[in-house]
Amino acid sequence: MSAVHNGVMDVLTNFVLPNDLHVHWSLMIVLYPYITGIIAGAFIVSSLYHVFKIESLKPVSRYSLIFALAFLACATWPLLNHLGHPERALNMMLTPSPSSAMAGFGYIYSAYAILLIFEILLIYRPVMVALKARSTGLLHIIYGILTFGSDNVSSQSLKLDHKIIGFLAGLGIPMACVLHGYVGFIFGGIKANPTWSTPLMPVIFLLSASVSGISGVIFTYVTIQKFRKKPVDAECVRTLTKFLWGVFILCFTFEMLEIFTHSYLKTHHWEMIHGLLWGPLYKTFWVSQVGIFSLIPMLLLAWMCLFRVGNATLVFWSTIASGMLLVQVLLMRWNVVIGGQLMSKSGRGFTTFHPQFLEKEGILPAIIIMVAPLVILYLLEKIFPMWMDDERLTALDT
Amino acid sequence: MESSKFAIDKDRRTFVKNVLKGTIAGSLLLVIPMGGASGSLEVPAQIPGIRGRKYDMFKQRFAFIVNITRCIGCGSCCVADKREYNVPDGYYRTWVERYIKDFDGNVYVDCPNGGLDGYQTPRADIPGKVRDTFFVPKLCNMCKKPSCVQVCPVGATFKTPDGFVLVDKERCVGCGYCIQACPYSVRFLNPVTHTADKCTWCYHRVRKGLLPACVNVCPANARKFGDLNDPESEVTRILASPDVITVLKPELGNMPALYYEGLRREVVYECGP
Amino acid sequence: MQSDYNTHIKRIVLLLVVAAVLGFLAKKFATPTSFGKYGHYRADAIQDEVDRPLRHMTNESCLSCHPFEWELHEQGRHKTISCEFCHGTYADHVQDGKFAGRLPVKKGEEIKTLCLRCHNKAIKARPKDVIKTVEMPRHLEDQHVQVTHICNQCHHVHAPLIYINHAQKVLGIEEANNGKQ
After folding, report:
1. Which residues in chain A are closer than 8 Å to B173, comparing Cβ atoms?
2. Are both B148 and B17 inside the same structural domain?
3. For residues B249 and B251, what is the distance between their CA atoms, to the nearest angstrom?
4. Of C38, C40, C117, the CB nearest to B161
């Protein structure tokens, strides 16, 4: 390493404080902001249609909500798996410490979950009332519960629903921002860690949440439509791509600004941060996050937004760019969460982290947690028809 | 060889007998039975003014002072600490670091096994000529403004009215946020209890008038603990003296109650010159 | 029968109110009683910590059963060393005032290792005014004894200079170690 980072490493003798050898926040804490980011981002996509009336996003307006709900259902899994005492998780709500940045999570997450669920239920109410009449058995009962036993779909009733939906969707935007900006602050509020403690952290988290949410919607929308052998709405993808480009420009700018600020201010932490970025994080940060998974999507998005690109080409390359950005955001989470902990608080060295495949917070549990929302999405689809070309919707929706 | 050994053994016995005749009566006076719930504890108090009177948590002030110039790096403190709390291997409530400076101003720091095994051998991987070596014991800083207490989401880590930062093992959810927030890395997630764990300055001993285990075993008097309300205590004297006394990472504003006497530049400013 | 146009909204509000009330009650009943007495924590946790069993005692706690060793130790230069550091904790030896287990006795090389933890001159960090250090095996050579010697063949572990002072006295040699054992 001293060859890479001439001079500084001669002084930093890689002394790691004995307790800093353990990376206490592992893969699970990488996934947690990743999943909440996807939720917040996907919700914003749906709000673009429901609040800002961007009509071209109609094909994914319902899907993005259900997509957000599927991830929301799994958002606490990595946390529960991480906790030393998951059975005490509710202490977070029983005795939340007013001074702790983390203590609000229980309430913020719950409030957001309630909002999202009720928004979905109200949006789907007329559809579910109709589906209830058609269905039998278990599905009949489920629809009965989800419509709160009301089958009134009169215009007066729907008008009321519509008002409330507008209100919830509007309220959901600041809530989504709070949910994810707040996750950023959990890191940004740790003064003991110089890579985390920056006021930019909530902003970066929020913007990368939007990036991952929009990318997630584009990527899964196109993929699922291909699977279902249904046409992809190219105008919808085009609009999403434009939003994605805009948000990603901001996101990437702030990510780089953070590093630039550190390097320009050259506080006494800079040697360590420099050592970290050009040492243990070189591959995951510079090569992967910045080099491959930021610059290439950035160029692709710029090309698609600035030039007249054919529909098929656009859908294809937009999906590729989205997939890459999903990786970019995951890498960003890794570099922040794991990277920050690799720096010992001795200020003199770095520890290492290699997740195992089978351990409690290892790679396999991480894969399970990331696949679970997709399974839940599949199950939710059985109850909530989310495609505009779905005959359950086209026949019934008014 | 054998016979000389025998002679010394024999001599030892007479010696001890002589000693006993003269002094043992006086020593016995030191033993003050504590009475009460801990009746079996018949050891003299090490911190005056705690036993035998009502303990008002709101009026106590304690300080811990580590004297860098006296530490010999034997690691007794680390061993005592591990034994007092059965600390799992690989985790440390206290540890002793070794700093080595060479003539080019490079600083080499190490802390094999937290200093539990002492420092038996010189470091072999230092290219330059060694100018100076010293040891720095580390433990909980008992901040007056503790970051760990601030960030604990469930109120499981807290500062007692008498200034000790403790962990409630029954409320801790094991999220590890306090571990991230501690600027001194004195916290860890105990792999046995799955809760956050850290040095307590041996609160259970202090409340019984005994010194923290590490202070009690320190042969060089490099670790000192005492009552700041007692004008006669060593810590009060040291903190009132004109000697250079400092704390670790003062710029973070945590205001530790752990002070260092003779602390070196290489420790305060993490990145060497 | 057709429901009212706002039946579902009423039910949603009712559901939220019920959930909030249940949550409030749960918070009230599941919070430990001493929580918040001194601050945002369970005040009884302080007593829990106070009640932690002691494992180490002090050197004085060894006195009642080991007066010979104690006296010897107290007179010598090793008096600042804790008995329990070399021998093990009081709690492993005595429980509720009764014998609970033997503490292992250090022998041979173990003794040498223990001595060199503090007295090894090779570790150039040991302040001279605090501790006397020796270089091994040079110290043994200087003293004209076999290099296989263990420290306690000349130095009594509890009072390291007692034999040496005694020998010097017998031989009529006066030295600076006067009075110290």
Report:
1. 83-86, 88-89, 91-92
2. no
3. 5
4. C38
B7, B49: one domain: no
**CA nearest A87 in B: which residue?**
B173
Mark yes or no for CB contact B27/C72 under 8 Å: no
Distance from CA of C33 to the nearest CA of A (A): 12
CA distances from B188 to A117, A321, B139 (A): 38, 41, 12
Would you place residue B30 in the very low, low, confident or very high pLDDT band (cuts 50, 70, 90)? Answer: very low
- State the total domains in chain C: 1
Interchain contact, A152 vs C31, CB within 8 Å: no
Q: Is the dihedral of CA A214, A217, A220, A224 positive or negative?
A: negative
Distance of CA B54 to the CA centre of its chain: 26
* Mean pLDDT, residues B181-208 taken together: 96
pLDDT for A301-338, tens place per residue?
999 999 999 999 999 999 999 999 999 999 999 999 99
Query: Each residue of B123-158: pLDDT tens digit?
Result: 888 888 888 899 999 999 999 999 999 999 999 999
How long a stretch of residues is chain C? 181
Residue-range definition of the domain harbouring residue C42? 7-50
In a domain, B212, yes or no: yes
- The CATH number of residue B265's host domain is 3.30.70.20
Beta strands B245-246 and B258-261 are antiparallel
Range of the domain at B13: 2-30
Residue in this structure with the two tokens 């041979």, named with its chain if needed: C108
Closest Cβ opposite residue A345 in set B185, B189, B272: B185
Alpha carbon distance B164, A306 (integer Å): 62
Residue B262 lies in a domain: yes
| C72: CB partners within 8 A, 6+ apart | B15, B16, B19, C156, C158, C159, C162, C181
Q: Which candidate, A83, A82, A77, A76, places its Cα nearest to that of A108?
A: A76
Same domain, yes or no: B149 and B217:
yes
Rounded (10°) CA dihedral B80, B81, B84, B87? -130
A36 touches A336 (CB < 8 A): no
Helix (H) / strand (E) element for B62: namely strand B62-67
ipTM, two decimals, is 0.91
- Spatial distance between the Cα atoms of C159 and C74, rounded to a whole number of angstroms: 8
- Angstroms from C178 CA to nearest CA on chain A: 43
**pLDDT averaged per 10 residues in sequence order, chain A, 398 residues:** 36 79 94 95 93 94 95 96 96 94 91 95 92 91 93 91 93 88 93 94 95 97 95 96 97 96 91 92 96 97 95 97 98 96 92 93 97 97 87 65
- In the predicted structure, residue B15 carries a pLDDT above the cut 50: no
* Confidence bin at B5 (pLDDT 50/70/90): very low
What's the average model confidence in pLDDT over B88-99?
Answer: 96
Residue C27 lies in a domain: yes
- What pairing do the DSSP bridges indicate for beta strands B62-67 and B258-261? parallel
Tell whether B38 is covered by a domain. no
